[in-house]
Amino acid sequence: MIARSSRCLAGVLGLMLVLAQVCYAARWQAVGTSNNGGLGLAYLDLDSVHQEEGYRIAVFLTIYSAAVPNAHSIRLDRITQETAFDCSRREFALRSTVGYFEGREVGLSADKGDWKERFRVVPQDVFSQRALDVACNSPVAPQPEAMPAAADAPASVRLPGPGERSPPVEQGH
After folding, report:
1. Is there a contact between 31 and 134 (Cβ–Cβ < 8 Å)?
2. Closest-CA residue to 152 (of 80, 64, 85)
3. CA-to-CA distance for 44 and 165, rounded, in angstroms?
4. What pLDDT was estimated at residue 97?
5. Domain that holds residue 37
6. Smallest Cα–Cα separation from 30: which of 39, 41, 19, 20?
7. Model pLDDT, residue 172
8. Residue 164 domain-assigned?
9. Is residue 1 part of a domain?
């Protein structure tokens, strides 16, 4: 009897663990209109926020109102940028960029060496200060980050872009 109830309990716990992974969804926080002439609306993946070697790391997703070409004339309708912040010095460094078009990855940033050597002061504009505030003041997410469901992945997540009805930007994190 005890062995049977233990197997049943183990089965229920295993099922709960599987369902918890299946139900995982990325949590996207609207940051605001990006600094590219209002062509993109940026979000921060709250589930990506973590500390690494004293830096705050976060992934931003920018959704464009229409496809735009990158420096290599590849059409993109969204990009993700993994960004490192030195919150106390109010500096940032871009770690990587991934470009997407119609749900497919179409480009990656080239490895330019040690990202820790490329820190710059965060610009004083509203968008940049908001991105710093959200990244540095959001709670650190449990790591490693779970793989998002396909519908929540950066290439395909359905979020409002510029000119669409967008969620309100939360103030004061």
Report:
1. yes
2. 80
3. 18
4. 93
5. 26-152
6. 41
7. 42
8. no
9. no
Residue 11 DSSP SS3: helix
Q: What is the pLDDT of residue 165?
A: 60
Nearest CA among 131, 144, 119 for reference residue 48? 144
Those residues with Cβ within 8 angstroms of residue 130's Cβ, 6 or more apart along the chain or in another chain: 31, 32, 169
Position 125 in a domain: yes
Which residues of the chain are under the pLDDT cut of 50?
Answer: 3-25, 169-173
The total of other beta-carbon atoms located within 10 Å of residue 41's CB is 25
115-151 pLDDT, tens digit per residue, is 999 999 999 999 999 999 999 999 998 876 667 777 7
The CATH number covering residue 79 comes to: 2.40.128
144: preceding bond cis by omega (within 30 degrees): yes
Q: Which amino acid is at 126?
A: V
35 exposed, middle or buried (CB, 10 Å; 0-12, 13-18, 19+)?
Answer: middle
Contact assessment for residue 15 and residue 23, using Cβ atoms and an 8 Å cutoff: no
For residue 167, being part of any structural domain is answered with no
Distance from C-alpha of 160 to C-alpha of 151, rounded to nearest angstrom = 14
Instruction: State how far the Cα of 93 lies from the Cα of 96, in Å rounded to an integer.
Output: 9
Residue 88's Cβ-count burial label (10 Å; 0-12, 13-18, 19+) is exposed
